[in-house]
Amino acid sequence: MCPSQPNRGEQSIRNDIERVLFTEEQIARRVETLAGQIAEQYAGRELTILAVLTGSLIFLADLIRKLPLPMRLDLVSVSSYPGQATRSEGPKVTVPPAGTLRGRNVLIVDDILDSGLTLQYLLDMVAEYQPESVSSCVLLRKERPDVENRTEAEFVGFDLPDEFVVGYGLDYDHLYRNLPDICVLKKHLYQDSQ
Ligand code: 5GP
Ligand code: MG
Question: Which one of 20, 83, 143, 152 has the lowest number of neighbouring Cβ atoms within 10 Å?
């Protein structure tokens, strides 16, 4: 097998993993705490979650089942990593929200805050729908001291170093979303495309 290609064999996608950053159990505990914070913040209000496909899918599924609030769910698709790139080249909405956001309390849910470009783009987009309020929740927040005045999220699961991660919904080239842990991929699998 060519060493710069991910291991697509049956054996184990674990072979492509350098190390586990957050285990399934750690994630479950943190997601429950986050849900508690969100529920407290939105107590007595109806929430509209606007989730960003596809990376937030597993986080979303776990998070909303821990939220004891009246809530609606809408989805957007944003493309920022064309092909095998591992740095954002500027977000674009490819699937807009299906329902109305006007007058709603919107909570944007995404997988990772990296440069913050995606989140800022979505905040601007949501503002155009004239919601009652808008805030954001990300499972992961990358350390990016090189980015000035980064857009921040109100609710954050974990901080992590500036490394490319996969698993728990996050992919590299459409692979690894099904890993239950959040993991750092072996560098030789993606560094050639940077
Ligand atoms: P930003 O616009 O903040 O630079 O990037 C946010 C998006 O980039 C995230 O929603 C996610 O889709 C993607 N992203 C950023 N870092 C990573 C990473 O380490 N792994 C994966 N799989 N996606 C990432
Ligand atoms: Mg994303």
Answer: 83
Cα distances (Å, whole numbers) of residue 114 to 18, 135, 161: 20, 17, 10
C-alpha–C-alpha distance, residues 78 and 88, integer Å:
11
Does ligand 1 come within 6 angstroms of the Cβ of 112? yes
In the chain, alpha helices (H): 24-41, 57-64, 117-127
Residue type, 117: L
| pTM over cut 0.85 | yes
Sort 52 into a burial class: Cβ within 10 Å, 0-12 / 13-18 / 19+.
buried
DSSP 17-35: EEEEEE-HHHHHHHHHHHH
43-87 tens-digit pLDDT: 999 999 999 999 999 999 999 999 999 999 999 999 875 555 666
Amino acid identity for residue 22 in this structure? F
- Which residue from 59, 114, 177 has its CB within 8 A of the most atoms of ligand 1, so it is best to mutate? 114
Task: Give the residue whose CA is nearest to atom 10 of ligand 1.
Answer: 112
What the block records as the tokens of 134 is: 């808008």
Judged by DSSP in three states, 111 sits in strand
Closest CA to 51 of 122, 108, 98: 108
Indicate whether residue 78 lines ligand 1 (CB < 6 A).
no
